[in-house]
Design a protein that fits this description.
Helix content: over 70%
Structural class: mainly alpha
Number of strands: 0
Strand content: under 5%
Number of domains: 1
Largest sheet: none
Distance between the termini: 30 Å
Number of helices: 8
């Protein structure tokens, strides 16, 4: 079992090193949802929104929830794209020829995507908090929500992979 976790850790660190080499991509990954959606569009459409329709204290609260949902869902669904690039480049085939568990490849990617998504959601909620937004469910509700949608995205990706292989 210790070897299994060592495999997962090594493969997860591969994804971390890969992202750290792309500084602009790393910055854009963390800042894009917060900058464009919350700050620009949130302030732009705040006066145009009808509070009776949004059923939120203000438009930023309504938009922050939507940005969190779309960020988690998008990252969960697109989390396996880099595995497809590895498959096209032949790296995945070389990796599968080594004596590692096949699930460690998927689990390492899941852990990496979950970590990046958690950081994005924390940045979004931190900026939303500066605008006076507080999640009604608290941090525990946000954590449960993120885990739920990440697992749903992982299952969707696995389903697509299984359909492509057969």
């Amino acid at each position: 079992m210790q070897e299994y976790w060592q495999e997962i850790r090594a493969l997860t660190m591969r994804w971390v090193r890969r992202l750290s080499r792309e500084k602009f991509s790393m910055l854009f990954t963390l800042v894009q949802p917060m900058l464009f959606w919350l700050i620009f569009f949130g302030n732009l459409f705040q006066r145009a929104a009808d509070m009776q329709v949004t059923q939120a204290p203000n438009y930023i609260s309504f938009l922050a929830a939507g940005v969190v949902v779309m960020t988690v869902l998008n990252n969960g669904l697109a989390g396996g794209v880099d595995l497809l690039f590895d498959k096209e480049n032949g790296f995945l085939e070389r990796l599968m020829s080594t004596p590692i568990h096949r699930t460690s490849v998927i689990l390492s990617r899941f852990i990496f995507v979950m970590t990046i998504t958690s950081l994005q959601v924390l940045v979004i909620l931190g900026v939303a908090w500066l605008f006076g937004v507080q999640p009604a469910t608290g941090l525990a509700g946000v954590a449960c929500f993120m885990i739920h949608f990440q697992l749903a995205g992982l299952m969707e990706h696995l389903k697509k992979e299984c359909l492509t292989v057969s």
